[in-house]
Each structure stands twice: as C-alpha cells, then as structure tokens.
Amino acid sequence: MKSKSLAQVTDFDLKLLRIFKTVSECGSFSAAESLLGITRSAISLNMSDLEKRLGMRLCQRGRAGFSLTDEGREILRHSDSMMAAVENFRQQVNQMHKQLRGEFNIGIINNLVTQPQMKITHALDSLRANGPEIRINISMMTAAEIERGLMDGRLHVGALPLTSPVSGLEYRHLYGEKSKLYCSSNHPLFLAEHEPDDEELLQYDAIAPSFRMTAEAIGMHQMLHCTATASDREGIAFLILTGRFMGFLPDHYAAQWVEKSLMRPVAPEKMQFSSNIGIATRNGRRANAILEKFLQSLDL
C-alpha cells in the first residue's frame, strides 16, 4: 500500500481507530460484529477506509484468518496512547468547570427499567439535572459485554447481575431481586389448582438461560426439563408466552403480564431464587467527575 502523510486526525479517524481496536481484541470481523453493532461488510469498509487514511496495511484477513501486520501493531499501540490522552484531556477540562459536561457511557442489562426502586433512573435524572450538557449514552448489553466494555474503556459504568467477579473490576451492590418460575395462560399448569411436585415439573419443557447464573439459580434450573435457551430475560418471556415453556423471570419484570392474567408463578413457595444487581466500574480508573456524581446519586 502506497505510503502517505496524515494531515490531521479527525473525529472520523478516531471512530475508525476504535473499530480497529475492537476488531483486534476480538480477533476477527465476525467476532466484533455484536460488540460494534455493525455488519462484517461495514467493518471491512471501515478498516479499508482507515488503511487508506493511514497509507499502510494494518491487518491480514482472508482464508488464513485475521492477523495484525507489524504496522498494525504499532498503530494499535499509538492509538491506545492517543485515546487515553484524549480522555484525560476531557476529564481535566471537566474538573475545571463547575458545570459538568462530556460523555457518560453506561451499559445496562435489559429489563431493569421495571425494577420498582428505579435507582438507576433517579441517578440519571440527578446527573442530567446537575449537568445539562452531559451526553448520556446507554447501551443495552449482556453482562459479559458490559465487563469487556469497562475493561477496554468504552464504558464508564455498568449495571449487571453479581455472579462471578472479573479481575480488574470493582463491584458494588445496588439492590436485590427475586425471580420465580412462570408459565403463561396457554400452559397446562396455568389453571391447575394443585402445586406440582418435582416429578410433575419435569414433564414440562422449560428454558435455560445462556448467561451466567448464581449457584442457587443453577440449582433451580437443574430441577427442570430445559429444552430451550435464551440469551436474556426478554427472550425467556417470549418463550414463556408461547405457552410451550416455563421459565424464571424477576417478579418486577413478570408483573406486567401477571396483572393482565397472561402469566402466573408455578410452585412459587419452592421454585424461586434471589439474586443481586450491582454497579461495576474499572479498578484504577482515571478521576471522572461525571462518574463520581452518578455514583453519589446512587448512594454508593
């Protein structure tokens, strides 16, 4: 590729470098699709644009797989330094202003909006009230995606279930939630007047989450005949509402269907478990006035 000088670094260049960093960490275009939220073809076009801008080949891709060139490794190292410098500059400017301003990136697992305490909602309201120029960016993600986003600096904070902690992150308890086993109004157990025993429960299909669970939740699912999986709680709700499956949902999330008599808990005294939702941040993070204000609003 013909070498050329880079006249200036634009916002577009920063976007392309962030895409390049994510692809490099994932090891392939296909693996980076879900994290970036764009297709492989779009990733390929962005990578080509970056290589043209820089005038050098950054990676090899094809049947042999994905690999960085020597130039690609150098560009990745320099871009990491530049991103850190940009973030540090923005945070230093924030510290100079009474009025908070800048971007605040938060990752949240889905279906927390129905949690009655609404701690995150109230904290975001307080944050916006104290800093009308703050740009709040919410991403709905799996727990694993949130943890990766915190580690690579794309996220400032995440809200996720407290299951198995990741080294390098700090977790703080936010609130607890209780989950029960639910079936829909089309399920044979919906109108049952008796409480099914363990043997009867095994006669019906159930849903196993594909996300991480606590030991207590795993034990509950081992008592069921799980023939389907779901990557999140909304997927579990979809399958329950078919009338073909039973599945565990947080009570606050299932309440919208229970109130309409579209769902009911099954053996609620026995088939239930408690879990904790927490806030995660990266250890050793740079001072960030916006993040600290958000955590204060959560009383953490």
UniProtKB/TrEMBL annotation:
Keywords per UniProt: DNA-binding, Transcription, Transcription regulation
Domain (HTH lysR-type) ranges: 12-69
Domain of life: Bacteria
Alphabetized PROSITE patterns for the sequence: HTH_LYSR
Entry keyword annotation includes Transferase: no
InterPro entries assigned: LysR_HTH_N, LysR_subst-bd, WH-like_DNA-bd_sf, WH_DNA-bd_sf
GO molecular-function term, one example from the UniProt record: DNA-binding transcription factor activity
Family: Belongs to the LysR transcriptional regulatory family.
Protein name: LuxR family transcriptional regulator
Annotated source species: Pantoea latae
Upper lineage: Bacteria, Pseudomonadati, Pseudomonadota, Gammaproteobacteria, Enterobacterales
